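Attaching the record inline, Q. Sequence:
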Amino acid sequence: MDKKQIEKLKNKLEYKNGSGWKGESYKNEVFEFSEKYKEFIGCCKTERETVRFVGDEFKKRSKKSDFFMVNRGKNVALVRLGDKFGMKLVASHIDTPRIDLKQNPLFEDVGIAMFHTHYYGGIKKYQWFNIPLAIHGVVVKSDGEILEITVGEDDNDPVFIIPDLLPHLSHKIMNDKKVKDAFDAEKMNLIVGSIPLDDDEKDTVKLSVLKILNEKYGIVEEDFISAELSVVPSFKPKDVGFDKGLLAAYGHDDRICAFCSKEAFFKSQVNSKTIVALMIDKEEIGSDGNTGAKSRFLLDVVVEILKKQGIEPNFEHIGEFLKKSEVLSADVNGAVNPMYKEVHEKDNASYINHGVVLTKFTGHGGKYMANDAHAEFVGKIRRIFNNAGVNWQIGELGKVDEGGGGTIAKYLAAWNMDVVDCGPALISMHSPYEIASKSDLFETYKAYKAFFESD
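Structure, as predicted:
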């Protein structure tokens, strides 16, 4: 065969995937879309904030056949009713790795007031030392009043810091301990004050902080017991690189998928099948609790859909509805980091800028604790994406015995629905400042929209 024939055969037979950047007009469209995302990811740093943002958008952008449901301020479902039985579901999670305050957090030591903390989700503890942090959350007072608190985001706000040990006195820690042991979780205390209430009295810095909080919010120390206060990076979303093709932000995992599903929901053409954008909590800590993927919130959504369709939501109808439903478990994958390529198997890894990632299975080792999507469903999703011109790639989370991770896919599959993981690949996942491709962001939106509009 000559070179032309070989090239033709390669194009016909080989699987190829490459950069999604497709010229100036595409770049302009991507950058415009990314600016909307920057607004979202910059102000949605907790589950409650995300649900509120999405709810406000729904009120402005919903269609007549749409409705939405909220569960405890931490789950939301956007629903557009169709005539057919079953649904097209894109399900993301809106919790992210962070630092939570303990229920009795405030104490004083060596003239410094600090908060005790307890980290949430899979973090590298050392990444959270000596960076500017903000406090977000709610405090429920003894009379039942709920206070929304955000400190550290405005330019005039103070920030908070978990102090690290200077390198001059860190030899024993750095030389004798493994990284996971060198950073004690009980030493991840947050500096919140340093001026004593009275120069003549000892140990009044804590009291000074309580006085400030009481004057500003009307709270007392016992109110912390019924509070949910989280410590998150105060970083703003920023473009990365001279060409601005990447975007750094806190919480890409997994609010990038939530944003894309929201946009796809609002911009999708009305389908004969019901479409649902579901956003849930607690994925980073196992999906437990009454706001996680193991809860019955999805069941409540299905019951409401059936009632609005005039169908009795009995056991048989619910089961049949779920069986005829299809799901994209909207979650991110880990892109190949150029400094640590050795943890990936290159032919089955995901790459930045190469489009949305289809992840057939997650788990660890021998596919333990994973949903392994059926070939028929993966084939159908391929056809949908190819027909819609979506740039997509396959990917698994690292080499077989390197580690692994999970998503909510297996909990959704337990309802007898076809499920496959689908989302963009990130660099530095679970860090305080994750990196995503703007092109992959846009292709993820296109993928979810194509799925919603498919038969």
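The chain has two domains: 3-96+250-453, 98-233. The first helix runs from residue 3 to 13.

More tomorrow.
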